[in-house]
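Work Package 3 (structural annotation) set out to generate three-dimensional models for the target panel prioritized at the project kickoff. During this period the team completed the workflow that converts sequence records into discrete structure tokens, so that structures can be stored uniformly alongside our sequence database. As a representative example, we reproduce one entry of 141 residues exactly as it appears in the project archive.
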Amino acid sequence: MGILIGIDFGQKRTGIAITDPGKIIASGLTTVPTKDVMTFLEEYVLKQPVDKFVVGEPKQKDGSVSEVEQSVLKFIKKLKNKFADISIERYDERYTSKIAINTLLESGVGKKKRQNKSLVDQISATLILQSYLESQSNKLI
């Protein structure tokens, strides 16, 4: 039984989150330069069984596709080619960056840490994955 990996894809950096083996809680793992994300995932999957990738789906406020979506689709194609046996799901990531910044503000993190975009990307990936987990548990009710 593997874990889920949440991915907040970005042009420069990609935030990564993981679940516990019971798939109950999402936790931030790291932020990787996007050019290195496939290598990172290859190495990670060798150490830890993965059942699914949950990739953020960037949308505008009105629900239309974001301009970064084409890059996300190219990334997903690479994921499918490299990890054919691991399923991929998309999950709406609207407002996750804003929520991540607010979370940092509310937690009393200093200004210097709040400006660390890598931390924001990692928190965003965690929010995407945790929201996905909650949506799945709501389907069971």
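The chain has one domain: 3-140.
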